[in-house]
Amino acid sequence: LSLKIKLAMLKLIFIIFCIFYSISFAQIAVKLQENSAFVQSISLIIEEFPTIKLISSDDGEIANEIMKNSANSFYLTTSSFRLSHKQIPVLIVLDSLNDFKHYDVLGDEPKQILIIITRNPSSLDVGNILSTFYKKSMIDVNFLMRLDGEISLLTFNPFDDGKCGSKLKLNLINVFNSTNKSWVGGKFYPSKTTNLYHCKLNVAVNSNIPFTIAQTHPNGTKSFDGIEISLIRELARDFNFIANFTGPYLTSGFIFHNGTSTGALSTVFEHKIDMVIGKLSHQLDRIKYLTATTFFASSPVVIVMPPTPPISPFVKLYLPFTTTVW
Question: What pTM value is reported for the model?
Answer without folding.
Answer: 0.67
